[in-house]
4-phosphopantetheinyl transferase (Dyella solisilvae), 214 residues
Amino acid sequence: MMTTDGQTPRKVAERLGDDEIHVWRLGYDHHEGRAPLLAMLAIYLGVPVHTVRLEEAAHGRPLLAPEHGEAFAFNWSHSSDQAVIAIARGVVPGIDLERVRPHPRALAIARRYFSPDETQALEQLPDGQRDRAFLEIWTAKEAVLKALGRGIAFGLDRLSISGSGDLPVLGRLDGHQASQWQLHRLVLDEAHVGSLAWHGEPRRIRQWTLADGR
């Protein structure tokens, strides 16, 4: 495996700092299941891939089995032919990815599940901008909920996303101080939208893309 800028993931993994979050983007085929994730985790653990063991938290979030200690926390997401993986020490990252596509029911979904301010913001947008804006809010919410260790059953209306598409802001998170959370938009392309979130102090986000063929 090589990155698009000519580095090996193993060398990158060796440089994971306590003040960083590493984000990986890679091509994905749903037939692979968790294989790409396990391969990346094995590199960061420095063990053969067949020895990587995962467990699931109460709400389904995958995490390293106890035998790996507290080496790091991770999260991943995939959509269509792309996947993203976040790895960090000392914080639990949440990451979400969506491929941009038409969402004719975006407003209907927002009116039912989003907060009133988010719905109003979507209603004010021209049709041509609404699909991407809807996914920007959606991925931001998902990233926060995954970092929280909860799924959408927590209630999408219990957190509110404001700010711009490039600079999302967690304005409210029921039961938590939103100001203690970090929320960032991933640098991807026009065909994809992604978000990264964690609870804690700001960190440096370092992002790599695996070259085709991985």
User: Anything to note?
Assistant: The mean pLDDT is 94. The helical segments are 9-14, 35-45, 106-113, 116-123, 127-148.
